[in-house]
Amino acid sequence: MAEGGRGRADDLVRETVRETDPLGIGTATLTFIMFTAIPRFFNDGKGDNYGVVSKLEGTLLLSRSTFPYFMLVAFEGGGPVRALILLLASPFLFLLESLSLESISLKIMIFISMAGLKVTDVKAVAKAVLPRFFLKDLRASAFKKFSCSSRHGKKYVVTLCPRIIVEAFLREYLNVDGVFGAELRIFDGYCTGFVSSPVLMSGFCETESLTLAIGDDTSINSGFCDASKSPCDSFTSLFQRRFIVAVEDDPSPLQRKDYPRPLIFHDGRLVVKPTPLNCLAILLWIPIGLLIAIFRLLAAKLLPCKLGLVAAAATGMKIGAKFHTCHPRDINNLPFNNNTNKNPCTLYVCSHRTLIDPVMVANVLQRPVTAVTYSLSWVSEMLSPIRTVRLSRDRVKDGEAMRGLLKKGDLVVCPEGTTCREPYLLRFSPLFSEVAEVIVPVAVEAKGSMFYGTSVRGHKGLDSFFFLMNPRPEYHLEFLKNIIVGTQLSTSPSIINGDYRKPSSFEIANRVQRLIGDALGFECTNLTRRDKYRMLAGNDGIDPRMRIHN
């Protein structure tokens, strides 16, 4: 039976209904196939009030494997030793899966990756690290159908993973109402590595667990799954309406522009998805990468700028720079400079990608500069090849300190106050616009193929090491046109008593942010360092016992 004519195979909908037997003997269960497109099915109002349950692995996510997510929990929450143990166990785990012992394999992964970890650490990894990897693995076709599946009914997701590591992502990004997954056994705030509820695998165990979870809720009568395996029927047999997501020959992940909410902040050291092969490659590279990172640091610290750049290039590091204008070293004789309190040197205002942004500015300019920062780990301060000055977070004192430094030489500042990995710029602090006459915006972009050189929860002193451990790290700097504060920056200049109206410090900061954002193709935001740390770590990012730079 078909409704609405012939449809597409990837919009296959199976529906089971009960009808009275024509002979009057009793009732019969009839299963028929509708070729109505899923979006049309719900647009017609048929699915508005129905609760929907979808599988996560293999349906909403492209991959069925849960190994990368347990590896992230093991590495980010437990450390490299725990991650190494999980990697060494991976051949045995895949052997169990090939023997249809997926439940045992999953329980072993849970135990290795989580036994002995604090529950708060697991939740922190689930909130700050895992969403980026889930979003990159989100199946575009399944997500679009699931997101429009039920307007007024509730949405639920079934996962093989423990609920604690997927719930934050599913609730924040997919707006689900509930998650069906294994529950961990907790003792005194620590994970024991065992589960207190059955692991939701395919077959009878899954059916039994879901039946207990759903209970007598008759509003949950629609199920999503993929059609790649026959055990899918054991899942959809629980529901009156069954929606089968066809397995495409070349499935496409959800594009960034289609994310249900922007991914601006995330944490974790690993850039690539930690599949077993990627983990093996990283493990083999770490000893070599550590030696290369030490060499790059020593070359920048001990060699002149030109030789330091040659040494960096010889080890595979790529540094590019683009200049839009030459930068004046002395502005004392400029006709508009009537303020003797201003400083003759240049203030370089950079977007903040990693800790070594000011070092790259100095290397490209081939002259010494001073970097100001609110805080800095003692390891980074010791290894820095340029002078660094720590600010006090007191606006008056910091302004005086920056003016004094500008009288002695060029200065580099990152007014965002923290790094951002994604194509967004955080709000610029306006303090820099109050202390300098000449401002040079610098659009900075940094890329690494294995490791991120920033961290919220990790050891700050290792940030530079991790970035320089990448096989071919890239840095690109674009020096934009000079800005003369008080004249060039006024977007709507007005003349009062023969003088140009001077823009406020906030106008200057916002304009510089937009210039850098346009050069990089980044989106400007009003988010701050405090917002970042509250989202990722649940605090303001200020620890009075430590000197932290992020």
Automatic annotation (TrEMBL):
Keywords: Membrane, Transferase, Transmembrane, Transmembrane helix. The keyword Translocase does not apply. One of its GO terms (biological process) is cutin biosynthetic process. It holds the Pfam family HAD_RAM2_N. Its main location: membrane. One of its GO terms (cellular component) is membrane. Belongs to the GPAT/DAPAT family. This is Phospholipid/glycerol acyltransferase domain-containing protein. The lineage of its organism: Eukaryota, Viridiplantae, Streptophyta, Embryophyta, Tracheophyta.
